[in-house]
């Protein structure tokens, strides 16, 4: 699955989300040693050239984003109302900053992202080889493709409808200048959704295997014929479960490291964007603007934003719940094994249980907030407060 992710991510270089490594060949079977060395040297030089060209493109993209931001501020058209102009300038500045942070992470956090993708491959390989898990992993690529198509088509269709309805409006602020910024932001959050979806799928597989181990200890009469329960009771099998959990925990740590700032700035940008879109829809509805149709494009603008935020928060919430489920099932296993004489087995169980109690798998926006379903409620409360503050300026 890691190769399919790389194939999808290869096209995201245009938006500065990911730099794909350029693979090379090794000429080990050539009869001429000098010729093979020359070919290897030329290929290494070609690989380094391609990699440098990709990095140069991202540097130019960063410069272009900054130049576009300054030019938009210099060529801005007047917007009626001090609060309206301040809100438009603020949201546009945050959108530009979000895009710069995202491209910067793609440029300067590429090693962490490569390590994350290699960890995904290692986790899947360990599940197949050490735990013989191939039930849910077989359908994982099709499920991932479905989620990717769903999020992309939702964003594309609603984005097109919003553009169509925005053309007839008079006061658009920085909307046309921020289209490229919004594309980068939405593709980045979809990319992170697929990452979290992959980790959740692996955690579900690990939970299922641990549940089989608990069922072997607690309900031997309900054993299935296609499961090798003799292997479940070995120390090596429990050690494999612990090693895969360590890989999953490390993958979440890497995700927070290379995508923490973009998650924080994207969520902040979406909060401001929510308030700004609802504010202009309310202004048009109350007659403060020339047209009252601002709520139509605002609706199509907010639908994909709402769906994507809820989706990633729901996936992160599921990962946290699966982590707690692993700890609960492991505690049941310790209780059932407390009377046995397997000292090394019980010692490993106690260490693993202590590790699960001390560690907690979460996805954060650079430790400013945790992505879960409670964040959705917090976003609604923040948007409401932001909207109330903007409305109060209308009557000053």
TrEMBL record:
Classify the main location. Answer: membrane
Q: Which GO terms describe its biological process?
A: chemosensory behavior; male courtship behavior; sensory perception of taste; signal transduction
Top-level taxon of origin: Eukaryota
Where does this one sit in the cell? Cell membrane
Q: Does the keyword Transferase apply?
A: no
**Keywords linked to the UniProt accession:** Cell membrane, Membrane, Receptor, Transducer, Transmembrane, Transmembrane helix
Q: Where are the transmembrane segments?
A: 56-74, 89-108, 150-167, 179-199, 258-282, 294-317, 375-395
State whether keyword Isomerase applies.
no
**Protein's membrane topology:** Multi-pass membrane protein
* InterPro entries according to UniProt: 7TM_chemorcpt
Write down any Gene Ontology CC term.
neuronal cell body
Please name the PANTHER family in this protein's record.
GUSTATORY AND PHEROMONE RECEPTOR 32A-RELATED (PTHR21143:SF133), INVERTEBRATE GUSTATORY RECEPTOR (PTHR21143)
Role: Gustatory receptor which mediates acceptance or avoidance behavior, depending on its substrates.
Which family, according to the similarity comment?
Answer: Belongs to the insect chemoreceptor superfamily. Gustatory receptor (GR) family.
Name of this protein:
Gustatory receptor
